[in-house]
Amino acid sequence: MSIKEIKAKDLNTKKFIDEKVREIREAVGDGLAVNALSGGVDSSVVTALGHKALGKRLKTYFIDNGIMRLDEPARVAADFRKMGIEIEVLDASKAFFTALKGLTDPEEKREAITQTFYKKIFRNLVIKSKARYLLQGTILTDVDETVAGIKRQHNVFEQLGIDPQKAFGYKILEPLIQLRKDGVRKVGHGLGLPKHIFDRIPFPGPALAARVIGEVTPAKIAIVKKATAITEAALKNVKAFQYLAILHEDRVTGMRDNKRVFGNQIEIRCWDSLDARTAKPTRLSFNTLEKIAAKITKEIPEVVSVTYNITTKPTSTIEAV
Amino acid sequence: MSIKEIKAKDLNTKKFIDEKVREIREAVGDGLAVNALSGGVDSSVVTALGHKALGKRLKTYFIDNGIMRLDEPARVAADFRKMGIEIEVLDASKAFFTALKGLTDPEEKREAITQTFYKKIFRNLVIKSKARYLLQGTILTDVDETVAGIKRQHNVFEQLGIDPQKAFGYKILEPLIQLRKDGVRKVGHGLGLPKHIFDRIPFPGPALAARVIGEVTPAKIAIVKKATAITEAALKNVKAFQYLAILHEDRVTGMRDNKRVFGNQIEIRCWDSLDARTAKPTRLSFNTLEKIAAKITKEIPEVVSVTYNITTKPTSTIEAV
Q1: What is the pLDDT of residues B192-235, one digit of tens each?
Q2: Which of residues 276-315 of B touch A (CB under 8 A)?
Q3: With an 8 Å Cβ cutoff, is B108 touching chain A?
Q4: Around A17, how many Cα atoms within 13 Å sit in the side-chain half-sphere?
Q5: pTM, whole model, 2 decimals?
Q6: Nearest of B57, B56, B32, B60 to residue B46 by alpha carbon
Q7: Is the ipTM, as predicted for this complex, more than 0.95?
Q8: 210-229 of A, contacting B, C-beta below 8 A
């Protein structure tokens, strides 16, 4: 089945929303649906769209995996509450840190997060909710990347460990599948989502675990969480495709109170890019760079050194893990 | 005994050189002297001064520890040959790499290099040479730092494992001990040393071992040697106190030939500083930074990512190890 793309420039936002609301209502009837909200653009838009269609018959879970940005769960829940949408936040951080323990290989880290999310946490929620419909924020780029072999296939049932045959009646709804990211942002705007949600910079699936080199521990996540908050606040008005802070495993010499110490290093990356396939470091001013470094080393005692990535993609990638 | 400082501005270079030449001749008489040349400013100046005083009765060794800059031994020997001074280059790299094997702690790495240099290599040369005089490029800053406990004491006999009592007759000559670095540079100029020697940027005692995070191996030294050459060539006309390239142990994701690879990261540092006690990152242009990164990732296949340090000292230090 080929999917008919709707380009952002051809998108009639109001008409699109009305159509999708009707389709979701027709599919779900008087049943129950469930979805997982990550706080990213796609899942935020699908949450708002689903609630417009189904109201309280859509149960939205926000699974706090412990590797999210600073105050993320509370902030996302508050944003949606303001729109009259109740989100159930579930603290699953222990399960994720347990799964990540001892892993240093980036692919193994990614896999541990995916498996914990689908097989361990979300699977039980779906079963408990008795919902027969799953709303998923899949967009056309995800489908393309699956076909190209860049990402794993978005076969949610399989990922949940649910045999669609046995679990007859389960249906997955992907109302955004004809859109690209720019179209999704337009729909988010049309649904009345705040700009800081529908215009948010991309954030990796493995969340802050992708921003830690080596083993992911609660202590390291606490450091990179603070560095990320400082970096995002400092660069929020910069016209960049993406910006991020990475916690290195290497220790470097530093000075605290006139004494030599071995401390951590944070690497800042900020990218100019159109489509993430190639990217250049944003030419930030040294004023900005030095302010970020000063704030990070002041507010995070473990960090003595901050760098800025000056490589293009390729040979670098946008994220480090 | 207090040492009478001669400030660079009060230094009469010709008079100083004449005096020191006479003092060295008076001390050594018709005996033999020996010194070790590292290629740095102080030991280069003391080598030229000693040869002016003693000619062939000063035996100068250049100990190649394998962790020097690209082509350093040959280049230093050639520079001195042009001035009519013969240097004996000794390849001791195996002894140093053996001593460094398995060490990751910065202090242990430094200690292994110091011990191998003094106790294992230079000690035998001194004994074999039958010289009773050691010329040493100690400057007043070294003495200050010894007193302040920043560096180890410059007690060369002890470091050589030679008991001055038993080895009665050994004498150490330190003709530059009243000077600071700026005075030494003036003397180097006065002795006719080429500007690229007497104006050279500082280089750490543990050489490129100080530019490798983690265990020092021949393969890692080969990478950081190339990165250092590229960085020094690109920044040689920049008015900076010091610039350097550091090889990290952490591996980051990169792209080579459209495939994901895990590669090395090089960190560039370039410092504005008066006295090395505090320092700021030099505000290099992004043109320069991006060119360095492109050249490093092009010419060193192992490296996929390059960063620039944006922290001040403190909390950073000039070197990373």
Answers
A1: 999 999 988 888 888 999 999 999 999 999 999 999 999 999 99
A2: 280-281, 283, 286, 289-290, 292-294, 297, 303-315
A3: no
A4: 20
A5: 0.87
A6: B60
A7: no
A8: 213-214
